[in-house]
Amino acid sequence: MFTPARGKLGKAKGVGLHSPSSPAPAVIPQLSPHQPTPGSVRGTLSPLFPWSSASSVPPRTPPPPEIGEKALVDGGEPVLVCHFPQQLRNSLIERPHQRADAGVYGGMDGRSGLSWVLHGSNLFVWSHLNSRAAQGCAVLTIPPQFSERDGRAGDSKFSENWLVSIVGWRTEDQNDVSFVKACKSAGVVMCHRKTLAVVYWPDVFKDGDTSVVSLGTGDKIEGSSTPALEESRLSGRKSFSSWTSSTGGPGGEVVNSLIASAVPGETPQACVAIAARTNGELWRYDCCPLGITRQQITRDVVARQDVGLIAFNSSSARSMVWRLPEDSPQLGVRQLLLLTAAELECWNVELASGGKVSEAWRFNILGNPDTQKDLSGQKQVWLLDLEVDDSGNFFTVLVASFSKDRGNSSSFMQYSLLTFFDNAPPDGDLVRKAPMQVILPKARVEEEDVLYSMRLRVGGNPMGSAVILAGDGTCTIAHHSNGSLKLYQFDLAWGAGKVLDASVVPALEGDEGAWLVLTEKSGVWAISEKAVILGGVEPPERSLSRRGSSIEDSSKEERQRGSSIAPRRVVSESGALNNRLPKAVNQRPLHDEEAEAIVGRMFQQYLTTGRVDSALEKLERAGAFEREVEMNIFARTSRVIVDTLAKHWVAGGSGSAAIMAAVSSQLIEKQRRHQQYLTFLSVSNCHEELQLKQRGALHAIMEHGEKLAAMVQLRELHNSRAQSRMQVSGSFDEPDSVENIETSGALWETVQLVGEKARRNNVMLMDREKSEVFYTRVSDLEEFFACIQQHASSIIGQEQPIRMQVERICEIAEATTGVIRSAIRYRDAQFSWYPSPEGLTPWYCRPTVRSGVWKVASLCLEVKAEASVSVPSLVPKLVSWLEIVADVLLEGYAGAITAKVEREEEYRGLQMEYWGRRDTLLLALQQHAKEVADDSVQYILDEGKATQQRRAVLQKMYPSLIAIARRHAGYQTLYNICTDLDDMNQLRSLMRESMGLREGRFSHYVFDHFCTTKQYSKLLRLGEEFQEELEDFLQQHIHLRWLHEILMQQYNSACSTLHSLALSSNPLIDEETTYVRKKDVGPMAKDKLRERRRLLYLAKLSALAGGEMVGGDKLAMIDASIVILEVQEEAHQKGVVSDEVLLPVQLVGTCLKSGHRDLVMRAFDVLAFAGDDFRKNNKLLLEDAWLHAAEQDNWASMKDAAEERGWSDEQYWLTLQGTVLCQMAKRCYGDGAAFYGAPFQEILPLFESDRTEEERPRISKADSAVKTVESILSQHGGFSDGREAMLTALKMGVSSDNDLDDKELESMIDS
């Protein structure tokens, strides 16, 4: 399945689903001995079963080593940790009649250090971390009632139906180390995948085969949600009649994950187990020696539709893990992580018996925008497995996706790792930690059962590596080396069978350990970091995914791969080059060696004859231009030149002076040789070819020249430091004193440490001088900075006097900055040789170098604080070097960020780190300058003279700091400097110069600072010079924008701003508004609506100042807003609405429902001045207003009173004039009606008779009832009795003269 480019590929066989501690199916071979392969690891195992009596392990085979032995740490091949226990060997040997396809299932528990194998009807449990602990293997017998129903123990189907989880019991006298090395007490929970039956052994090492059983009930358990169906205790022989004939749940759903946890408290040997079924069901088991209770956990298993990518049955369970390896016992709660087909769910599990299990949070993985971006173009996506680190905050998900190649329409699978980080633990605020890591870009298409058989493990060395266990028994370790992915597949020369599970050597000393694998035939093996690095190869489909799928490219790829798939071997350390090549490079294809030999011969020919006969053509045929970066043949040859060893090493008894003299001459010779090599590349046209095809390789070659120049500078610095010390001590005539001076100092000790590390990595250098080794390994100059980062305390000598510490820090600071600046000078001088720099990160901008330089800067800051108190005279020297170090460090960060941006990689995290360290360093430098200035005026009593003196000192010290801050956008420092100098002219000058910086404009920083500190007058005065910039800034500060517009005499813009501000939904009163009105904030806060009306009047004045004519549209709109705001003021005074501005539709609805007669009438003012578009779009609201107007008068009682009391026509007329209908008809339809926009008549006619003859045929019968005020009033409940009065009131309202004579009134009533 996951098979790198090797001699043989594993055959994928689909098996079922498995939990992290579940058995992986394997196949037991027939018992036939095989002879060992020559050169096999440790020469130990000759037959397939090394414990076979017929052909056992050779007598002189050493016993398996302990984990901590050097063989495991330094070995280049896998190391046998422990054999299978004798009881398991006997079980395998005693079954010669067993079927060939019978299953061996096993797993490993990393927390307890226990392994287990299920074979036949027995479960074998032993410790794999101590070879002697295997003698104490626990053999557990599965109760017979299970084998009676589930089939014979020899059947392959019997073992594959069980999942196993181990719970370690830690005693009070055991710490982490003793518990892991020798787990003396452990419980085992075993769950049947189909029936949910559980077998529990409370203590496998003390109680032996005593078990507790909870039997499943087939179909019955599917509908049960109550606990404690069956509880019993037995000694392993009692049968149960409740075992039903059903062995599976509905639909073939099975348990695919099982985890267990110890329960803290008084109950001994109690644990909680959680089982997850493929359909998403969760079941809880409370296990103790007295019995088992079962309870189904309520969970929504309905498939979700918002998963973002194609994933069927998105609620189905994939795997489960505990979020943390162990939790605080007093809390009694652990968090469970459940991976579904689309999401990651977190559940809180109360460990007490019968405790609750509740969902804490969930995260939609496939719906995450970053995930969708990474998986764009994929046809279908599967989330396969989940792992979490020991901190519980980093989540790694194994993902498979299906896609098609657009070039040839072929289908393929892609396997990747997604890593998420909990940004706010434990609340589940997940963010992506890094871009998706593609493990296999193009692989063959597999069935779903094969995909679901894959499992993921994380946490071992190399740091950041991951293990993928496939269902066919292959074990693949993926890790990154120099920015490229490498794959290592575990495989022994004689065959160890399938890999059943994998774990990690526990971090007993705070470091992650080697990988451990449990094999089918050969016990437990450890894979060291060195073995993974040396055996790693590129993914087999990487080239295919980059170059397409043509037959020619594929065949070429196969030829290249065929030469590189020889069995893994450790290349002998016969030369300095092979030991220092990048990881996994020692396995070099044959054509690489041939190409390198051709380059060497051509270069030698050029040096002797000056000719390069057809060099380019020969090297192209040899494939010299195919490899990338440091894998490239030309880059390797360049490394050989700069790292070559001297032909004649200086004798070991020679003095250091002789050694250093030889080193200096050798460095000069290497510089000359490397320059000749560059000339050879240019003459042979290879330089131009590299510029076109392999920019990274050419860049690596030029970096070798940079490091050579840096080494020469470092050597010269050491010589100058030694001469200075000799001049101070006057020891020129004493040879021993001269020797001691030359071999002392912080730089010398650093060189010794780096040389010692290089010697440990190469046995050929063990008897050589450390300093000579250091100056020979030019390409490893980054180790100099790594050593400073790791051993800074010992290098500066923190136990020494402060004066000595300052001297040593300054020496290291001079060395680090001198090295980097020498490299930069070389780059500037040799600029024409370099390729295009886009996307290439210089070596001095890489993390190792940055970390070392930052460590030097941190030490300067720490020692400065102490020296300021004890020896103030040393501070200026220390700060001067701190300034140089800060400049170099910040330039390194800027280069690294630029390269990431050009490569379109994520750079925000690096940028935040850059900004933080920039501000720290610049603030420290500025603070020192202020302290010096303050000290200079300490004894000046005249305040004016003191101010002048202080300013003069600052003007002398600030220019260099300003230069650094300008280059790196240190806006806070620049502003503070201008403030200290009280120099607004310099502030304005800096604001003009920094307009094009990537991080943002300095002018915006100044604007924001003035706004935050409420210096509004200064802010607005800057608008005279930075008008456009301030306008852009004030887009987010509308409360101040209108002031700037009035100041700039932009009255029309100020009018629009004030109008929108008065009607905005945002709170009007804030800190900025205190500048707007020179009054106490209290009255404004009490009358916000009146303040808004004041802003509308200001808008009206601004419109008039801008040339707006009286009666114009803009003034009419403002007047309409004033009327609407007055209505809200009146409603607010009556307590109907709040003082926050409402929308017209909200205000109308509130007034109509208020129950106040006058507010109902004021609602028509809002409708009139809200505009014709508002009335058109809210006709239902308009209808509701007329109905509420009709309800304000009792028309029935009015009619009865007129009849009973005999009202005269004039009295009747006066009564109708007082109705709301009459007044609103006059307000909206009368001759003096005031409104904004089109008149009411165009939107809603008053009477049916007002419609034109052309309109009536177009109005349908359904619409006719809502087209006029008359038809609206017909819906009123009192219309039948008061129709005549209502219509008369409307006609009286629209009449131009209310003083009607009797005849007119009579005719109106009659009509």
UniProtKB/TrEMBL annotation:
Ranges where the Nucleoporin Nup133/Nup155-like C-terminal domain occurs: 881-1066
Keywords for the protein's UniProt record, in alphabetical order: mRNA transport, Nucleus, Protein transport, Translocation, Transport
MF (Gene Ontology): structural constituent of nuclear pore
Cellular localization per UniProt: Nucleus envelope
Nucleoporin Nup133/Nup155-like N-terminal domain span: 83-525
Biased composition (Basic and acidic residues): 539-561
A single GO cellular-component term on record: nuclear pore outer ring
InterPro entries recorded: Nucleoporin_Nup133/Nup155_C, Nucleoporin_Nup133/Nup155_N, Nup133-like, WD40/YVTN_repeat-like_dom_sf
Ranges that cross the membrane: none
UniProt region (Disordered), positions on chain: 1-45, 539-569
Domain of life: Eukaryota
Predominant cellular place of this UniProt entry's protein: nucleus
GO BP term, example: poly(A)+ mRNA export from nucleus
UniProt cross-references to Gene3D superfamilies, sorted A to Z: 1.20.58.1380, YVTN repeat-like/Quinoprotein amine dehydrogenase (2.130.10.10)
Similarity comment: family membership: Belongs to the nucleoporin Nup133 family.
Protein name as annotated: Nucleoporin Nup133/Nup155-like N-terminal domain-containing protein
